[in-house]
C-alpha cells in the first residue's frame, strides 16, 4: 500500500506542476514569490493558502528551489500520470468513484482556484452527496483507524448504567458505523451530530432503528450548552477527522472537556500533515467562504506534540497516539488520539 501511496503523491505533485506551468503562474527559468505566483494564476484570496501548500510540497520534494522567498523549478518538473489514478485508488481501498471524481476536479483546478467554479456543486453532480463527500474517507488506512478507535470506545466505562456518547462532525458516518458495532451489546445514549443537515438527515435515515441513537445538529464553534449538551454529561466524545474544522480549536476543546465527566475519554482521528493528493482535490473544501475572514495559517493539520499541548491546556491528558511513526499504517499521515479528562 505504501508504494501506491507514494505513487499517488507523485501524480499529485505532477498535477500541481501542470497547473503552475500551463497557466504560466510559474514558467520555467523564472523566479517568483508565492504572492506573485498566486497573482499570475488569478487565485481567489480564500484559496491562496492552497497554492502556498502546493509550493511547500513541491519544495519538499525537490522540484522547486528557493532563494530569498522566491521559487523556481529545479531539474525536470514532475509529470502528472493521471491515467494511473484508478489503479492507485483501488490498491489503497478507495471506492471506484474516487478516481473519476479526482480526474474531474483536476481538469477544473485553475477555474476552481479562481472561484470561477465551486467544488461542492461540481462534486454533487456525480451522485448522492453523502456518498460523494464521504468517498475520500473510505480506504484501508481510515478503516484501520476507525476500527482501532471503535475498539477503544468499547473499553470505555459508563458513569451509570447507560454509556453516554457524543459524536462530533459525524459526516458520512464512517466512524459511526465502526463505533456502533463495537458498542452493539452496550446500553447507550449515542448522539450523532454534524453541522450539516445533509449529514444528519442521512444519519437519521440510516440509523433510525438503532437502539439508543439520537441525531442532531451541532456546531463546534458555538457553545455546547446552548445546543443541548449538558456539562459533565458524557462518558465518551468521538470525532472522526472533524476537529481540524474548528475555527477556534482551544475554545472547542474547552467545550468538549466541559461536557465530559472527569476521567471520561475523547477519541478522535486526525491527519497530522498535508496530503498532496487531497491538496489537488477535497482540501479545496477547507477554504473559508468568500465572505469570511481568511485563514490565519496555511497549515490545516496539527502534529501530535501540538495536539498534546492543546489538549493539556484544556484539561486533558493525551493517553495514546496510534499508530506509532514506525508502523507502516503511519505513512498515510493519519493518527488516532485517545485523551482523558483530568480534574483541575
TrEMBL record:
Residues 166-265 form the Methyltransferase type domain. It comes from Pseudomonas thivervalensis. Gene3D superfamilies: Vaccinia Virus protein VP39. Transmembrane segments: none annotated. This is Siderophore biosynthesis protein.
Amino acid at each position: 500500500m505504501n508504494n501506491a501511496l507514494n505513487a499517488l503523491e507523485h501524480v499529485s505533485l505532477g498535477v500541481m506542476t501542470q497547473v503552475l506551468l500551463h497557466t504560466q503562474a510559474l514558467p520555467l527559468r523564472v523566479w517568483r514569490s508565492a504572492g506573485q505566483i498566486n497573482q499570475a494564476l488569478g487565485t481567489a484570496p480564500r484559496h491562496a493558502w492552497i497554492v502556498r501548500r502546493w509550493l511547500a510540497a513541491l519544495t519538499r520534494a525537490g522540484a522547486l528551489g528557493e532563494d530569498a522567498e522566491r521559487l523556481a523549478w529545479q531539474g525536470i518538473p514532475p509529470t502528472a500520470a493521471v491515467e494511473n489514478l484508478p489503479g492507485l485508488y483501488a490498491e489503497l481501498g478507495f471506492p471506484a468513484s474516487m478516481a473519476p471524481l479526482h480526474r474531474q476536479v483536476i481538469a477544473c483546478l485553475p477555474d476552481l482556484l479562481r472561484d470561477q467554479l465551486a467544488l461542492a456543486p461540481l462534486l454533487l453532480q456525480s451522485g448522492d452527496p453523502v456518498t460523494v463527500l464521504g468517498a475520500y474517507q473510505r480506504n484501508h488506512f481510515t478503516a484501520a483507524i476507525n476500527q482501532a478507535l471503535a475498539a477503544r470506545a468499547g473499553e470505555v466505562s459508563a458513569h451509570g448504567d447507560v454509556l453516554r456518547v457524543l459524536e462530533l462532525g459525524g459526516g458520512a458516518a464512517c466512524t459511526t458505523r465502526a463505533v456502533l458495532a463495537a458498542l452493539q451489546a452496550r446500553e447507550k445514549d449515542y448522539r450523532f451530530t454534524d453541522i450539516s443537515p445533509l449529514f444528519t438527515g442521512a444519519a437519521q435515515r440510516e440509523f433510525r432503528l438503532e437502539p439508543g441513537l439520537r441525531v442532531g445538529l451541532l456546531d463546534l464553534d458555538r457553545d455546547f450548552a446552548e445546543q443541548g449538551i449538558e456539562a459533565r454529561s458524557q462518558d465518551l466524545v468521538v470525532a472522526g477527522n472533524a476537529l481540524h474544522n474548528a475555527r477556534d480549536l482551544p475554545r472547542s476543546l474547552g467545550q468538549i472537556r466541559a461536557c465530559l465527566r472527569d476521567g471520561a475519554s475523547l477519541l478522535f482521528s486526525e491527519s497530522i500533515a498535508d496530503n498532496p493528493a487531497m491538496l489537488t482535490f477535497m482540501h479545496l473544501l477547507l477554504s473559508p467562504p468568500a465572505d469570511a475572514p481568511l485563514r490565519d495559517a496555511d497549515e490545516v493539520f496539527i502534529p501530535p506534540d501540538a495536539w498534546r499541548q492543546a489538549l493539556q491546556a484544556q484539561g486533558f491528558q493525551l493517553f495514546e497516539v496510534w499508530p506509532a511513526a514506525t508502523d507502516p499504517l503511519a505513512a498515510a499521515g493519519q493518527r488516532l488520539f485517545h485523551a482523558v479528562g483530568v480534574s483541575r
